[in-house]
DNA sequence: CTCACGGTTCGATCCAGGTCGAAGCGTCCA
DNA sequence: TGGACGCTTCGACCTGGATCGAACCGTGAG
């Protein structure tokens, strides 16, 4: 069996704790400098530099120089997908990194998955949209209906511009904690942006946790009512 | 970022060439003995035994004793999913194991993905089914319509029994070579079984390639006409 | 019972690669 | 222009883990 793509290079890149920590940090969707990632991974800057070079070479992340800093982000949301899939399998196989800490429930309720909303609330949002026939599912990639576009416009998202980019408008992304899909793609990102803009929730600095205020959560539930 | 599942253990397991070769072989869906996997990976039986123990411990494969042989299979189709995702990323990142060999086109046209049909023909089959509204897509997991169940019965697949198992009846599985979905799950398996039973195609021994005969291919195209 | 065979365990070897100190290089600021 | 800072390169060190020979164990065959 010497055919097909070479999974070893990529898997080996993910198989080192320092690199995995860096990638986990980058799952927050924002760009980090080399130094920040070094601290995140708990290694010296030299070591981090070596790891980052390997990750760039492997096509998992990209770096942009800006002044004397270098900002790194995941290379694509495909990479984020892979990381979520891996986390799902690890979760199910019972490999926890540490025993559930205090912020673990918050992470399960709402977090960013690269640049869109994941966790209980992310799944609830997609459920609500599909239940009201605002989005439909065609062969794995979601598809906005006419009423859906109407809804999005009212919510403050111009879907016309989003569809122009080469990134798929919306896309089902499997959630590792809930084991069901939430909304990804350009629309997923735009929705989360609107949620921030309306002040319903804020990112907890340095983590993937998305913190909803009490009125924000109520407004969210009203905008995306549960199917039940 | 010390929260969430531990992806390192699993990724490290996949990051060794010998283990990756074994898993790639197991993607063919059939069970292999420890010795066969050792030859497949190009290592001695002792080394293979050590690797297999690690893979079992990590929950990626399971082994069953039978006489003086031990048969190994992938632990779940989730593992197969992960491998396909990894292959997709590796393919796109341009990491090929070897330069495309002679059987590469055959692998792209039709192969087994664990236990269901993948490649051009696998994608075409799902396309045909969705186009004729025989299956629908709800939040990532496919769903058979009433007419779909009718169609399956006519094709020789009793969907009633399949739905009883704890494995999802059907499921979209992202194809690494085509980068679109094909049909997985219990129904995907049953469909491939029927294709074998009707003599349309056979597995090429020891590889993932599925070889359609000329009349078999014609019958396949007739049963699953292209949407165009 | 004895032997052959598949699989595992043990121990020793060896090497890829992670790690960090020191030095180099470019950018920004005073 | 000098100095601080962020990042990278180089070199040396060291450890984890892959590998295999040899011995061991259980099953099946003669």
Please give a structural write-up:
Chain A is α+β, with helices and mostly antiparallel strands. The first copy, chain A, has two domains: 8-75, Arc Repressor Mutant, subunit A; 103-223, no CATH class. The first copy, chain A, has helices spanning 7-14, 17-26, 34-41, 45-57, 77-92, 104-109, 120-131, 146-155, 159-164, 185-197, 214-223, and strands at residues 32-33, 61-66, 69-74, 111-113, 116-118, 135-138, 141-144, 171-174, 181-184, 201-203, 210-212. In chain A, helix 2 crosses helix 3 (34-41) and helix 3 packs across helix 4 (45-57). Chain A starts with 6 loop residues before the first helix and ends in a 5-residue tail after the last helix. The interface between A and B is large, with 63 and 63 residues.
Q: What order do the helices and strands come in, and which of them pair?
A:
2 copies of one chain form a homodimer.
Chain A: H1 7-14, H2 17-26, E1 32-33, H3 34-41, H4 45-57, E2 61-66, E3 69-74, H5 77-92, H6 104-109, E4 111-113, E5 116-118, H7 120-131, E6 135-138, E7 141-144, H8 146-155, H9 159-164, E8 171-174, E9 181-184, H10 185-197, E10 201-203, E11 210-212, H11 214-223
Antiparallel strand pairs in A: 1-3, 2-3, 4-5, 6-7, 8-9, 10-11
Chain A binds a DNA duplex (30 and 30 nucleotides) through helix 4.
